[in-house]
Amino acid sequence: MKPHLSLLGPPTLTLKGKVVELSQRKAVALVAYLATRREPVERSVLAGLLWEGDEEAARRNLRQELFRLKGSVFEPLLKQTPQTLALGEVDTDLEAFLGHLTRGEWAKAAGIWRGGFLCGFEVRGGEAFLDWLLPEQERWQGLYREAMLGWARSREAAGAYHEAIEIYRRLLEADPYQEQEQQAVIRLYALLGETPAALRQYEGYREVLRREFGVEPSPETQALYRRLRQGKPLTEAEGFSLPRALNEPPLVGRAEDWMWLEANLCSGVLLLVTGEPGVGKSRLTQEFSRRRGRTLVVRQRESGRRLGFSGFIEAVRVALEQGWDPAGMEAAWRDELAWLVPELAGSLEASFRRERQEGWLREAGRVRFKTRPSRSAKSHLFEALARFVQNWVGPGGILLWEDVHWADESSLEFLPYLVQRSGGLGYMVLATARPEERHPAQLRAVLQELKAEQALRVRVLRNLEVAEVLELIRHLSGQESGGSLFSERLHKSTGGNPFFLLETLRFLFEQGLLRVGEGSWRTPYDAFTADYHELPVPPSVQGAVLSRFQHLTEGTSPMREQALRIAQALALADQPLSLEALRDLLREGSPADNALLAALDQLVQAGLVRAGSDSPGGVRFSLSHELSRQAILAAMPETTRMGFHARFVELLRISGAPPERLALHLHLAGRPREAAQAYLQAARAARSGPLATQALSYYAEARSLLGENLSPADSFALLAEIAELKLILGENPRREVHQMEPLAAELGKAAQYRLRLLEANAAVLSGVVEEGILSARQALELAETPLERGRALFRLAWLEYRGGDPDAQLEPLEQAIQAFHEAGERGLEAQAVRNLSGYWLRLGQLEAFEAAYGEALRLAEATQDRYLLRRLMADRANVDWVKGRYGQSLAAGERLLAEARQTGDLWAVWDALQVQALNASVLGLDEGLEQALQDSLREAEAAGAWRDRAVLRSDLGAGLMAINRLAEAREHLSIALRELQELGERARLGHTLFALGWTLLDSGEPELAEAYLSEAADLWGERKEWRHRARSLAALALARLRYGNRAKAREAAQEAMRYLEDWAKGLFDLPLVLYAYARALGDHEGRPYLIHSQRGIHELAAALEPTLRERLLANRFVAHALGK
User: Fold this and answer.
1) Pair 406, 970: CB distance under 8 Å
2) Closest CA to 1002 of 957, 959, 955, 962
3) pLDDT (tens digit, 9 = 90+) per residue, 1049-1061?
4) Average of per-residue pLDDT across 858-872
5) Domain 986-1124, CATH among 1.10.540.10, 3.40.50.300, 1.20.1560.10, 1.25.40.10
6) 349-366 pLDDT, tens per residue?
7) By three-state DSSP, how is residue 433 classified?
8) Per CATH, is 260-460 categorized as 3.40.50?
9) Which helix (H) or strand (E) holds 520?
10) Smallest Cα–Cα separation from 568: which of 603, 605, 619?
11) Is 193 left (phi over 0), alpha (psi -120 to 50) or beta?
């Protein structure tokens, strides 16, 4: 057992459990000095410290003293070398005191104190020793005071106010002039309700100051006294507070990052700032955005990962609360936003669009869904969101999208569209995310896509360097110098992570280890530390938060219990909550609940909770940082979590919250079957509109929760819903179909019919036409009602058409029309009759077309199906174009375009532009139409509408061809041709082949043109679309003439004449075929046909108004034909 030396009072030594009297004063002085140094000391230094006189005499006295100590109790206390002395193997109360201080064990440290360092000790003839002793005693007295203050603060934090008062009073007995301690005693008496005692404490302090110094207490202390005299109560939160600077830290070490933002900020590009949690991504981007101009902040939250567009829904609602007027947006886009935020609904057009989108997916007795074309719906919503951002931030503003690593699938799908559209709408997109290695797969894919398009720039934020930590500490503390060792210690412990660093500082202040005094910060270790290794820094940022949280909420007072519940509620809510919402959640009925308000105030002052004003007069509370939320969640008991989630369920049901949010809390409350039903409800609601993609994740959650608890019938029905939704989304439901197969065999004919029809629909998507035809025929055999027969027949007809044989579709199409009629499904009947009109038109049977078209129009008007009515108007415009009625066709296209733009239907806009582009291939492309087609190309790409993009590109190429911009036309047509071939889209392929062949012919490359025109003619022949074949053969004849093969040219021209249809008087039908035949026959023999062709062109021109007539006569083909 080691000897124990006690020096924090009268010096004593304990040997083998017995206290030994120390009478040799020089020896005591010697070991006391060595105990404070904790390292070997030169003998000359010790001699000069303890003896006066010259150096030789002092060293001689030291040698004699050491000789006298041989065999005494002091001998084992000393470790000697010829040059130095050090303390031997001995424990001291000094080391124990510092150890307790380092660990924050304030009471234990104070318990060691016995009056002071070498209390009552004197030594003769040692003036130098006395010069050392007095400052050393003051140093240890200061450390004792730090221990007592820490002890008092810890008891105060625990709610033990009487104990804290006694500790403060012990300090004041030694020094009654310390105002901080006097204030603490006054405040604690007040909190205990002992106001008279608090007033007496103040008055006694004031009397001491007046008597001794002739001064008054500080204004702050006087204000506290006046408040108590007026009977105004104090709250616990009005005690200790952190330095304000900690809640408003400067932006340090980010100059280069700021300059990078300045240099790279532009529209049409995503600026992504990444970094570890707590590195300061939000602080940097928020400050930068605020200084740059108007900003919309979209915050993704962990709890919103399963909720479609959760961040944008919150942003729109915050904007509404802050006074945003939706009337500033076009009605079409405002109505689209109403899919996400129902408060915006209100226009008749929005209501109509929802009502007209009723479709079928399940039969009577089953669920019935709206089936808006999901890609169109999605694109509309994307555009509406992009326009909302523009409306809020204005030109040059910024969208700040925080924590995109938690974005839901729908939001991530929107991100590339948003970035692309920001270029045209004139605002910038800035985002933050965790490091790349923590990105979910979908985010990585989206960012890779943006990177490939050179629309992504990334900045990785680093932690602060040591010099930057020092700069921050000096700024926060107000010190102009010093702090280097302290900053190095903080940097080593926190890695320079700003949030971790600030939380550590808050922790140190709350533990009493860091205090403000005399214009600087100080710690208990300043007087003796070499590197602040004694400073008890938490090992992680989560540890720092938890330590602060536990320190704040320890104890049993109502306010502390309330603070704990508030923090837990905010952590689980994962979104800002109003005071009213917190009361409801915590079941606090009284608006004047002092404990709730005081607890909130304490959490805000501690920096754990942020109070933000989102609307006039409204304040919402949230945890200050995501890392705080994670730390609180990690420490929360599971039973507490489930209880809160159950309460969330109650409140959400009362408020009519969407089922997806209800489902999340039901799941976490331990009620899986209810959660599954809520997820199913959410999926069935989402699939009808722009959140159809998100519906798939809701279905997946429901299936996961239901597990094996579904009957075969329910399991089949659920799989069918998912498969049908995938078809709407353009995905192949191969896995679901495979899982449905054994269930259908067990369930009977109705299930088997539904499965076969699904297979047929999937075949349309995958292009495996033969398998689809087989499935459709099997569905037809299983059909039991006229409606079921109609659907199977309709799908069979479509598959036959896609398979390339228009004749094969006629019988099932006519039977489908009859079946729909018997079933009373007028909407489906109208669609089928329209398809029939298209069949007759392709075959050139105009009378049959007109009859079918008239019937389809009648049915569409009866059912008020505006979507079908627009399609029929487009069909009529196309027929007018074929007939050469360009004025009527153009007018119809303009009406279609105006209506489509008014309703915000991008697909309808594209359809209308195709009508306009068709006319431009004859009349020439004007600037406005060219720009509209270019814009639509970008929109289609952003929406993932690949077929529409290819068709629009083909139309643009044909228009460019008509105005002799042949090189550009060739480029666009070549790309469109490749895209259509990759898509397996044969219905439009022939048109693109013809336009590309014609462009090459005009470019002087007849041999190459021949190849494309031959392919076009063959394709139209396979499809039995003879009018199109005639046009391609006529152009082929001209190509062969161009390189001198008149025999082959005549052969192609003669065949073209066989397919000529007199009613098709448009430029590229009757006039072209007659012109090619005339040229192939030669000048003499072909003259009558040339005159006929020219007469037809003049008739086309005469029917047009002057401006359009001029455009027609400027056509290169027209100029050639009329010039002969």
Assistant:
1) no
2) 962
3) 999 999 999 998 8
4) 89
5) 1.25.40.10
6) 433 333 333 332 223 233
7) strand
8) yes
9) strand 520-522
10) 603
11) left
Place of tokens 């489906």: 828
1116, two tokens = 């290169």
| Dist. CA 847–CA 855, nearest whole Å | 13
Please state the φ and ψ torsions of residue 298, each to the nearest 5 degrees: -110, 120
CATH architecture for residues 544-636: Orthogonal Bundle (1.10)
Query: What SS3 string covers 45-100?
Result: HHHHHHCCCCHHHHHHHHHHHHHHCCCCCCHHHEEECCCEEEECCCEEHHHHHHHH
In the numeric block, the tokens 């009866």 are attached to 862
- Token pair belonging to 786: 């006229």
Residue-level pLDDT at 616: 42
Q: Is 78 left (phi over 0), alpha (psi -120 to 50) or beta?
A: beta
* Fold (CATH) for 4-143: Arc Repressor Mutant, subunit A (1.10.10)
| pLDDT bucket at 686, cuts 50 / 70 / 90 | confident
Q: How far apart are CA 322 and CA 850, in angstroms?
A: 56
Residue 707 — left, alpha, or beta (φ > 0 → left; ψ -120 to 50 → alpha)? Answer: left
Handedness of CA 762, 767, 768, 770 (dihedral sign): positive
432: phi then psi, degrees, rounded to nearest 5:
-125, 155
Contact 595, 559 (CB under 8 A): yes
Report CA-CA distances (Å) from 1045 to 351, 893, 1010, 1011.
Answer: 63, 41, 11, 14
Residue 428, strand partner residues: 398
Indicate the average pLDDT of the chain: 86
The Cα 750–Cα 738 span in angstroms is: 17
Q: Please count the residues of the chain.
A: 1124
* Strand 295-299 relative to strand 398-402, pairing: parallel
Distance of alpha carbon 939 from alpha carbon 382, whole angstroms: 10
Q: Is the pLDDT of residue 161 over 50?
A: yes
Q: How far apart are CA 104 and CA 252, in angstroms?
A: 30
**What would the DSSP string read from start to end of 237-256?**
GGS----GGGGS----S-HH
CB 337 within 8 A of CB 385: yes
Which amino acid would we find at residue 926? D
Amino acid (one-letter) located at 652:
L
Average pLDDT over residues 870-879: 91
